[in-house]
Input
Amino acid sequence: MNCPECSHELRFISLKGVEIAECFKCRGKWFDRKGLVSIVNKVDKSLSWLDFDPFGKDTDKLSEASGGKQCPACLKSMQSLTYLDSKVVIDKCPSCNGVWLSHGEFAKIVLYLEKVLKSKNAKALVKQSFKEFIKIFTGSKGLITEVKDFLVVLYLLELRVAAEHPSLVRIAEDVYLDTPFK
Output
């Protein structure tokens, strides 16, 4: 496979335990569909419930443009997409479901998703926890993964409540200290 940006040969490497192809000249990276999602989830486990997938349900939220780059795997034309309002441009192949990220775009995606996560207040996380609870029974990622997503959101809710309402934390600590369940 050759790089869609500089035509240099791509080499396979392991990134967070997932095999990807990287151009050692321009530092672009080629992911298969599951590889990109897996790596984002491994970089920051608290991002897993955000379900980043440029081929999934969020595709209608992506603004599409003609990319002009050739897929390194199947040699078909790729589409350039701007992910939500992140200003991160990714190239995806609608034929083989691969994703090309130019140098630095992967880090920008993770930073954007972390920004989205940090912008959630306690009220939004309460709503999200109910949605994640329902997904345990109706979700498509499998029972264990859906339960993990639910627990991540509950943990994030706990942190957000502690940050927004420190007096509640003090009350909870006092109650805990006064109980025999230590």
